[in-house]
Structure formats: structure tokens, C-alpha cells
Amino acid sequence: MSLRPDALRRVAALACMGVIAAPLQASGGDIAYGEYLAGDCTGCHRPEGAEGIPSIAGRAPEDFTAALAAFRDGSRDNPAMRLMAERVTEEEVAALAAYFQTIEPY
Ligand code: HEC
To answer: Where is the Cytochrome c domain (predicted)?
Structure first.
């Protein structure tokens, strides 16, 4: 039995996708999607931080996710962040965490 050329191409394409997907999966979220979503956050969260607003750049994804969960369940009380945390799905939080981790804090 021999593979047809189109089958070979498919195998090669899958192999390439594996290589590209690996770093994304390492952090659990889709960085490009996170960057797209981050527009809702960076109006307040500047990489250098701002008066009363911490920088969230370079944050470990576990801390990031835990902070959003705490705002959502009210154990951290901040009206603006509670609103934001209630609006995002788990997949979006994972993507945001993956993206913000890649940003260098100033
Ligand atoms: C209206 C301004 C505003 C927007 C928009 C906003 N945040 Fe926040 N965020 C804050 C403030 C203020 C705090 C600090 C609250 C506190 O410590 O009680 C905070 C805290 C956080 C923290 C915890 C940081 C730490 O040091 O513990 C995370 C994580 C976070 N925000 C993520 C996000 C994400 C993700 C988005 C976009 C979906 C977002 N924020 C949008 C104002 C904002």
C-alpha cells in the first residue's frame, strides 16, 4: 500500500499545524484571540499601570484566571472588574491570560 500524494500533503500539513499549535496549548489559551479581546481591557490596564489600576502585563495565567474568578464571585470587590469578569467566558479568560502573559511589563 502506498500513500497518494494528496494524503501525504495532508499528513505534512497536520505535522506543521502541530508545530504551530504547541506553544499556544502550552499556556492553554489562544494568544491571537486574546490580543483581539484585550481591547476591552487596555483602556484601563496600561502596560505600565495607572493610578489605582494595576498593570496586568506579564502576569502568570494562573494568577490572572484566579483574579478574574475572584472578581466574578465577589471575593474581590471591584464594580468595574466584576462587570468585566462577568462578561467573559472561560475560553476568553484563557485567551486573555495567554496574551497578557506575553506582554513585557514596563
Ligand atoms: C474600567 C477600568 C477597567 C477595565 C475596562 C478593566 N479593568 Fe481589570 N482592573 C481594574 C481595576 C481598577 C483593578 C484593581 C481592582 C482591585 O484591586 O480591587 C483591576 C484588576 C484586574 C486584575 C487583577 C490584577 C491584580 O494585580 O491582581 C486583572 C487580572 C484584571 N483586572 C483583568 C482585566 C481584564 C482581562 C480586562 C478586560 C476583559 C479588564 N481587567 C478590564 C480596572 C479595569
So the answer is: 29-104
